[in-house]
Amino acid sequence: MLIKSILKSAVVALTITTGGALFAQGTPINAAAFDALVAQGPVADAATIASSTWASKIKKAGTLRFGGVQTSNLFSLLNEKDGKIRGFDAGLAQLLTRYILGDAAKYQFAQVTSSTREQVLINDQVDMVLATYSITPARAEKISFAGPYYTSQAGVLVKASNKTIQSYSDLAGKKVATQAGSTGPAILAQYAPKAVIQEFQTHQEALDALRQGRVEAYVTDYTLLLNALSLGAGNARLAGAPFGAQDPYGVGLPKGSDGVAFINAFLKKLEADGTWTKLWTISIGQRTGSTAVPTPPAHP
To answer: What is the pLDDT of residues 117-173, one digit of tens each?
Structure first.
């Protein structure tokens, strides 16, 4: 199973355990392999672009405006030395930029948070949001989603010294951090209704609260927790296996956009020619020690 294989191998590959303490040993992305893969991505022909109002607008502008993050180690991380963003989400965004504009570098990046992702689309500040963005009914009332292109679940992060919390079933009465605007509050309400929830605006603020002892656990998407460990979250550990429903990641688009069909066709092309698998291997598999390549999720 994907989740178990990633979780098990990531703990082995990314950490060294000494006396119960967990120390991150992050593996950097293979930048040369990532850049080469993006540079070999497909390019849409004129008829394909013309079939989509959304893609045609981007083609005419000469730039794809993309909302994302720069601190997600496995999905979208800024390399300050060369100024490039790399990771699974970043790779998809750059491949899509190349597909539309013929040059993967022709994108304009805008930083988003869990609380601002819908608004930047509604305000036409970006053309799309690609940021481990969970597809939910509430969000789908405001915007449209292409995909899903990836699936995840929830996880629990605690200090390595915490022996009381071994899974989400131990969170009753405990102070638990999660991100405002994320799926975390709803997941906790369902699986740990007696937890004392504290919402933070950003992932880093929640991590800081855990590190400082202001909360006893942090519940969010397990891939973000793997990111935290790989970036050096300190003496922390994942408590138990991922839990909850499969969480589909989608590409956020303006409500009613025909970019949904365009991007879904693009994703199918990447899946068929092996690019999706290669991108996952470079961004996540090689860096977590996982050789079990997941099957891309089904989408329209």
So the answer is: 999 999 999 999 999 999 999 999 999 999 999 998 899 999 999 999 999 999 999
* HSE (side-chain half, CA atoms, 13 Å) at 67: 25
Provide the pLDDT confidence category of residue 29 given band limits of 50, 70 and 90. Answer: very high
Side-chain-facing half-sphere of 240: CA atoms under 13 Å: 19
Strands 144-159 and 217-221: antiparallel
Q: Which two tokens stand for residue 213?
A: 């002892």
The reported pTM is 0.74
Give 77-96 pLDDT, tens digit per residue.
999 999 999 999 999 999 99
- Return the residue matching tokens 């601190």: 71
At residue 289, the pLDDT reads 61
- Helices 259-272 and 88-101, packing angle to 10 deg: 110
Separation of alpha carbons 21 and 83, rounded Å = 34
Task: Compute the C-alpha angle 21/26/30, nearest 5°.
Answer: 165
